[in-house]
Specification:
14 strands; D-Maltodextrin-Binding Protein, domain 2; three-stranded parallel sheet; 11 helices; globular; 2 domains; alpha/beta; five-stranded mixed sheet
Length: 285
């Protein structure tokens, strides 16, 4: 074999070998990319797990009137009604898992419960860790103030001062709203909303930022101590169920469920009862 033919043979061999290597690499990548979905497809979805278990575990935290305890220490509220109806329509029992709000997303991610139904605002930074359903409700932030400490205050700007103390529940959209709209004020955040309310009632804070209708309710209950410096709400926020990432079936189910009960008018009826009346207040006595 002359040198020319030898060189051509070597080139063809090298080219063929390179092609084989490339094809093997591509094949390996395809296999690697298919491992996770295949494994996931072989396991049970969260929806199947819930139905087989026979219990829907819901993480929540107490917020009036979303969730609270009545005189018999039973959980009641808008979110309690929503979660109970969801479990009923799934054909399973309901189990509530009360959780501190600041740790509720980590608790979901570690599997303490199946989803969060707790008035959670849909926010991009939260969406990095969890999936959100379509909105089933809309909320907004209100502000209630101490009559003596905040006398003459009538706008958010009045509270945006270093000598003003604003309180809220830590880890909530209320706390985020206080930081955003009153950056210069001193903030005192608490893990329990009742402690934030008490801080205001005791005159240790000028104002409390919280989701409506809590500010209005507090004013009704304490008219001699508190007042509303700003009517209504100053934000509008979509509220959704928070679910673990990577499970399409459960997300599709809850989205469809929300669509159905919203079309029925059931969500509007429950929202009216808990947010626009005080008929439920007798259950707390």
């Amino acid at each position: 074999m002359n040198d020319r033919k030898l060189r051509e043979t070597v080139v063809r061999f090298a080219t063929g070998l390179a092609t084989v290597v490339i094809l093997l690499a591509i094949s390996g990548c395809v296999q690697s990319n298919n491992v996770e979905p295949a494994a996931a497809a072989g396991g049970r979805s969260l929806l199947e797990t819930i139905t087989e278990r026979g219990v829907l575990r819901v993480g929540m935290s107490t917020f009036v009137p979303w969730a609270m305890r009545d005189a018999d220490d039973e959980l009641i509220g808008f979110e309690i009604d929503v979660a109970t109806r969801l479990a009923h329509d799934m054909g399973v029992e309901i189990e509530f898992v009360p959780t501190q709000w600041s740790g509720i997303i980590p608790a979901l991610l570690t599997g303490r419960f199946d989803m969060i139904i707790g008035g959670m605002g849909i926010r991009p930074e939260r969406n990095l860790s969890v999936n959100f359903s379509v909105p089933y409700d809309y909320s907004g932030m209100g502000i209630v103030a101490h009559r003596r400490l905040a006398e003459g205050y009538s706008s958010l700007e009045d509270f945006n001062r270093p000598d003003v103390v604003v309180t809220a529940r830590i880890g909530t959209t209320a706390a985020a709203a206080a930081e955003r709209f009153m950056p210069d004020a001193e903030k005192r955040f608490f893990d329990d909303e009742s402690r934030a309310v008490q801080e205001l009632l005791n005159g240790r804070a000028h104002a409390l930022v919280a989701s409506a209708p809590l500010p209005a309710f507090q004013t009704i209950e304490n008219p001699d101590t508190l007042f509303l410096p700003v009517d209504g709400t100053f934000t509008r926020e979509p509220i959704g169920f928070a679910l673990p990432k990577g499970d399409v079936d459960i997300l599709n189910f809850v989205n469809s469920w929300i669509t159905v009960v919203e079309a029925e008018g059931w969500l509007a009826d429950r929202k009216h009862y808990w947010f626009e009346t005080r008929d439920w207040a007798v259950r707390l006595e």
